[in-house]
Amino acid sequence: MDHIAPQPAVPTVLYTPDGTPYYAHQPAPAPLALYHPPTPLPAPIHHPGLTYLPAPVAPAPLPATAAVPARDPWPARLLAGGIGIGAGGLGLGFLLQTLAAATTGLGLLVAALGVLYLLKNSGGGGGRGGGGAVNVSVNITNRNR
User: Fold this and answer.
1) Is 71 in contact with 81 (CB distance < 8 Å)?
2) Distance, CA of 130 to CA of 119 (rounded, Å)
3) Which end of the chain offers a freer environment for a tag, N or C, measured as fewer CB atoms within 10 Å?
4) Residue 110 is inside which H or E element, if any?
5) Distance CA 23, CA 15 (A)
6) How many CA atoms lie within 13 A of 17 on its CB side?
7) What is the dihedral of CA 51, 53, 54, 57, to 10 degrees?
8) How far is residue 136 from each of residues 91, 129, 133, 139, measured CA to CA in Å?
9) What's the pTM value of the predicted model, to 2 decimals?
């Protein structure tokens, strides 16, 4: 008894007429053909006194479409709605988080500027109208004695 594992099949290598390799796992259903782009319409022939109009080109027929199922794909609509609501909630969350960060930063900036203003304008000693040592003399006379 032979215990060798089966080897995978080697893909067949086919070649196009110009020598390009074409790898296929199954034999091609028909020989490969090169693509030739459509030729442009012939140039109009100009004869004196005659007008040449090219023949109208008929549109390509549309492929037959399969019948659309008559049932309503409500699970797909529910899923799409849930994804939309979730995405909207996520966007709203990001918006509120950004707004909270902006207002917090603005509040901290105003507080820092307020502290700087108070330090600048408070009477921290000496100077103009600031606190400090003041000499006071009080004379009290009692005239009713």
Assistant:
1) no
2) 12
3) N
4) helix 74-121
5) 8
6) 5
7) -170
8) 67, 16, 10, 10
9) 0.33
